[in-house]
Amino acid sequence: MSTTGTAPSVADRVTSLVRALRAHGVRIGTGESVDAAQAVAALGLDNREHLREGLAAALLHDQGQRAVFDPVFELYFPRSVGAPEGPSGPPDRDGLRERLAEALAANDRAALARLAAEAVDAFGGYDANGWSSQQTLDRLRPQTLLAGIMAGIRSGGGQSGAFTDRIEADEVRRRIEEFREQVRGEARRRVAERRGTDEIARRMPVQTPDRTLFLYAGKEQLAELRRTVHPLARKLATRLAARRRRASRGHIDLRRTLRGSLSTGGVPMRPVLRRRRPARPELVLLCDVSGSVAGFANFTMLLVQALHDQFSKIRVFAFVNRIDEVTDLIAHGTADPEGLGARIAAEATLTGWHGSSDYGTALGEFVERYEAAVGPRTSVFVLGDARNNQQDPNLPALRRVARTARRVHWLNPEPRSQWDTGDSAAGVYGDVVDMYECRNARQLSALVGRLLPV
Amino acid sequence: MFTSVDDVTARLAETGYLASPAVATTVFLAARLGKPLLVEGPAGVGKTELAKAVAAISDARLIRLQCYEGVDESRALYEWNHAKQLLRITAGRDETWDQTRTDVFSEEFLLTRPLLAAIRGDDAKVLLIDEMDKADVEVEGLLLEVLSDFQVTVPELGTISATRRPFVVLTSNASRELSEALRRRCLFLHIGFPDEELERRIVALKVPELDAVLAESLVRVVGALRAMDLRKVPSVAETVDWARTLLALGADRLDEEVVRASLGVVLKHQEDVDRAAAKLELGAV
């Protein structure tokens, strides 16, 4: 740590760090702040990595918060201050790219961090007090180095033809991504020096996968989201099992009660209840897979599929303005989740005359063709934004489904404030069935944990 | 207990546990601040091993509470020995009720379970509460008193406080969210997959006979597998297994043939094997 002297005291810095974390929704009590201060006292300030891990251990409660903590820590306990040391000359783009390529090929982390600082210093500055990571990366274009690095490794490496060659490109790609992240962090640090750490730390965009908005998620973010499907499904399965256990009440199991009473001298202190045979419920999913809603629908389909052993039967239907069953596609989709959306579009008949969604027609067709799928033990989930393109909402069809099914829930990926604006028919559908806002994976898992039948 | 973080790293390494800086720092802090340590992470990264290693380096007795669905007070904390109490009552027929009562609820009739055992006695102890997430929510409430004040209240006997605090490690696979109250009482440590260099050292330590170049490519392939979208990504335990397998197969370099034959050691689902084979251009497996 090179920052001492007039810099704020360590206690101040720890409390500002805590404030910034709280601003990003991490819940930290006073007790944890005290722990953090004690941790700093015990660890000292001479090893930055130890300090970071120690503070994280004291302040955080789960790994997801690490995505918030790390960049904030970088701001309050920066590796260095000011411009990087070294000869300052005119920016030398080609030289920098060359050194970057070398460092990427050798996987030299220290050099990469140094280069990130240099790059921001040379290319990131704009007007008086701004540093932009975007601008730096645009000028430097590290992603274009890949081909050169690969060629270099192929020609230079003595052990060509080795098995690991085929994963080399992916490794370099990951390192480039890491470098981009370092550049972003460095730019933030430089800006913070000019405009005050607290403000930058508060405004810093932090995105954890479970808060990614379904409607605006890009390809990358959806891929990241998909990686959380299985852990999430496991968590939900235990939650469902727990609910099922608690739901078992009723008749006393006399044999087991008497058996248990032996330890209390024959007095039955704890009555044991008979376990109900679990009649596993059935699930029907109706998914709008048009345009921007598709990301949400696909994620939910995969999640439900991952939960398949919790239900006796799951049937999934997809629609845009015509409806078709896609259960088999989903079952096979777990092997290749990326291609799921494309395969649904290719193999199922989802559109008729036009390509925009029409809930009324789709619901009507569902009642007509697949009404047998819904019975008194079925829970139906409708997934979609209820944007009906001014068509007839066909409420009788939905009412009919609601009457037959045990429950009907509607999950809407739009924020509640936008319901009923424009062509949204959320209100009229919401009168017939319960509609829930479901904008990100966090909300989805809370809803699924609560609404799924047990 | 420890003088510095580096001291922790060095002493853990002596017992054969290679700790990342995060692990060493948190263990050091847990010992220094006297707080329980909550360890989370995927299966097979050495969460339970950590508790054993800490017990080994601090010359402490390891007391283990294995949690499972339905574990309760009488399994975790203490239980009265009913049979023995009955015997005692029948044996002393001429006594007054008061005598019997005070006698029957004494230490002699108390069966200590792990949590109580960890608190009593003056010797150094490491308490490992394994797979906390498997236990029901009620057990967490039970733990709160133990973890924050290191004491246990037995209604008939009064409160028993620890004369010497045990070093507490809780492990969790995150199959259920632990309650906020429990988390707040602990230092949090997430053990993820080690970086390439550390994993190489782990392989070298566990399977020293394996050729260093081969070990390096092995670790890199495992790293690539972890970046894929798999149902169950390979853990450190699988890496070590794979290293042992390669040794048994007598492979001296990693090639298509060897990987195809042994991919089942690291990947536990057929769809994962298929996917990885496609990504690694192995052809049919």
Order of helices and strands of chain B: HHEHEHEHHEHEHEEEHEHHHHH
How much β-strand is present in the residues of chain B?
5-15%
The CATH class of the largest domain in chain A is identified as: Alpha Beta
Question: Quick one: which chains have the greatest interface?
Answer: A-B, 49 and 49 residues
Residue runs with pLDDT of under 50 for 5 or more positions of chain B: none
Overall helicity of chain A: 40-55%
Oligomer class: heterodimer
| Total helical segments of chain A | 20
Number of β-strand runs of chain B: 9
- CATH homology superfamily of the largest domain in chain B: P-loop containing nucleotide triphosphate hydrolases
Total beta-strand segments of chain A: 8
Instruction: Report how far the terminal alpha carbons of chain B are from each other.
Output: 52 Å
Overall domain count of chain A: 4
- Tally of alpha and pi helices of chain B: 14
CATH T-level topology of the largest domain in chain A:
Rossmann fold
Structural class of chain A: alpha/beta
Q: Can you characterise this structure?
A:
The complex is a heterodimer of chains A (454) and B (285). Chain A is α/β, with parallel strands linked by helices and 454 residues long. In chain A, 53% of the residues lie in helices and 8% in strands. In chain A, the strands form 2 sheets. Chain A has a 6-stranded mixed beta sheet with strand order 5-4-3-6-7-8, with helices on both faces. In chain A, helix 18 links the parallel strand 6 (378-383) and strand 7 (407-412). Chain A is globular, with a radius of gyration of 28 Å. The two termini of chain A are 55 Å apart. Chain B is an alpha/beta fold and 285 residues long. Chain B folds into 3 domains: 5-69 and 118-190, Rossmann fold, CATH 3.40.50.300; 78-112, no CATH class; 196-279. Chain B contains 14 helices and 9 strands. Chain B has helices spanning 5-14, 21-33, 47-57, 73-76, 82-91, 97-104, 114-119, 137-149, 180-184, 196-206, 212-227, 236-249, 256-266, 270-279; strands at residues 37-40, 61-66, 78-80, 110-112, 125-130, 151-154, 158-161, 167-172, 187-190. In chain B, the strands form 3 sheets. In chain B, strands 2-5-8-1-9 form a 5-stranded parallel beta sheet. In chain B, strands 3-4 form a two-stranded antiparallel ribbon. In chain B, strands 6-7 form a two-stranded antiparallel sheet. In chain B, strand 6 and strand 7 (158-161) form a beta hairpin. In chain B, helix 10 crosses helix 11 and helix 10 packs across helix 12. Chain B is elongated and about 85 Å long. The model of chain B has no long low-confidence stretch (mean pLDDT 88). The chains are: A alpha/beta (454), B alpha/beta (285). At the A-B interface, helix 2, helix 3, helix 9 and helix 12 of A face helix 2, helix 5, helix 9, strand 9 and helix 11 of B.
